[in-house]
Amino acid sequence: MANIKSSKKDIKRNLKRRAVNTATKSALKTYVKKVRVAATAGDATQTQTALTTAIKNLDKAAQRGIIHKNAAARRKSRIAKAANAVLKASA
Fold it and tell me: Which of 6, 13, 25, 77 is most buried, taking the most CB atoms under 10 A from its CB?
């Protein structure tokens, strides 16, 4: 355990940030899963709304440094590919 007061504060701050980051990462996985589930179900409107929500949240997480920007781009690319297949099939 740290003895210096500022180090103790740093540890507290890091634990709080870690909890927030973990929750955000978990939410991102849920958003991506919703896109994939809607895509496999073949529901075009639900896929589109889930895709926009997922992309928005992935961009936010990358901007805040929770995930790397290339990881966000990769995930967006993969879910967009799945969503576009459903959207083309329904058109």
Answer: 25
Contact 90, 48 (CB under 8 A): no
Burial 38-69 (b: 16+ CB within 10 A, else e): bbeeeebebbbebbeebbebbeebbeeebbee
In angstroms, rounded to a whole number, what is the distance separating the alpha carbons of residues 10 and 52? 36
Instruction: Tell me how long the chain is.
Output: 91
Measure the CA–CA gap between 5 and 31, rounded to whole angstroms. Answer: 39
Query: Per residue in 33-81, pLDDT tens?
Result: 999 999 999 899 999 999 999 999 999 999 999 999 999 999 999 999 9
User: What is the CA angle 56-83-55, rounded to 5?
Assistant: 10
